[in-house]
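ugh ok fine here u go
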Amino acid sequence: MDSPDDVVLPSPLMVITDRARSLLALPDALRGAAQGGARWIRVREPDLDLFAYIALCHVLLDAVSDPRVTWAVRPSAYAMLRTAYPELRLSVHCTERDALFAAAAVSTLVGRSVHAEADAFSHAAHYLLLAPVFATASKPDAAPAGVRAIRDAARSGVAVVALGGITSDNARECLMAGARGVATCGYVLSAEDPADRVRSLLVGVTSD
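structure:
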């Protein structure tokens, strides 16, 4: 894979979906997030089988309908969605079990979720989604890794995106520790105004 400096991420901010945590209907929340400047959305929803997942992706992609947004999807859904939406920006985000498969099977940006530190699979991704960096309500029993974990993961030679308890107050801290971007779920989706939350996060990750 390319070096971290060579990898071009769609945005320094990734918004991750979670139907259960969205205050608004998920299509409305993501439409608002895109209006606020979100340009990278990961459709997660691990409880859905492939067909239900693809059906949800159709709903979300049609609802947002913004060609500036890059959608990160499961590797198993990538080909079908690429065929259905040839004009949209699509990337792949993987779990541990399918990271190597995804990297070999598609020619696009590939990301992988990791916990606490990078491992032997890190070379199979362009970026690592490292979580949880800070305490998060979605995983109350998980010990936060802290910004030191960002520094350690960055040494793997892969771009790092920080996840877990990310807010407009600490997003900049992650970049200062070596992250190339941050990711959030509940902070944006639980808001009455997702667009405003996205704007506040973008200030933190784009200001010098």
